[in-house]
Design brief:
mainly beta, 11 strands
């Protein structure tokens, strides 16, 4: 099992920055890819960025050039640096990972952290 705890959300003006953290505990040696998702009220949850254990990253088109995902494997923490924030970035942000056990995959989510960007 894995536990994920997000932190770092808050209220910021448009153009500002925030850094989110996702701290993992439990069977962290089994974690490969960690992703950040977000969900705004009335919208479906969308994948914002992912990073593999080797550091390979992918991003949602609308955040490319503004958001950077990184990880500290020694600290079992993944970060999402968000710059030039826009009101449309307002959402609850969640980190996620999936672990395989035999033929089954298990998905783990954190509790989320709220990001609010004012115009």
């Amino acid at each position: 099992q894995v536990q994920l705890v997000e932190s770092g959300g808050g209220l910021v003006q448009a153009g500002g920055s925030l850094r989110l953290s996702c701290a993992a505990s439990g069977s962290t040696e089994r974690i490969n890819t960690i992703g950040w998702y977000r969900q705004a009220p009335g919208n479906q949850r969308e994948l914002v960025a992912t990073i593999t254990s080797g550091g390979s990253a992918n991003y949602l088109d609308s955040v490319k050039g503004r958001f950077t995902i990184s990880r500290d494997n020694g600290e079992n923490t993944v970060y999402l640096q968000m710059n030039n924030l826009k009101p449309e970035d307002t959402a609850a942000y969640y980190c996620n990972t999936k672990l395989r056990s035999g033929s089954r995959w298990y998905e783990y989510w954190g509790q989320g952290t709220q990001v609010t960007v004012s115009s």
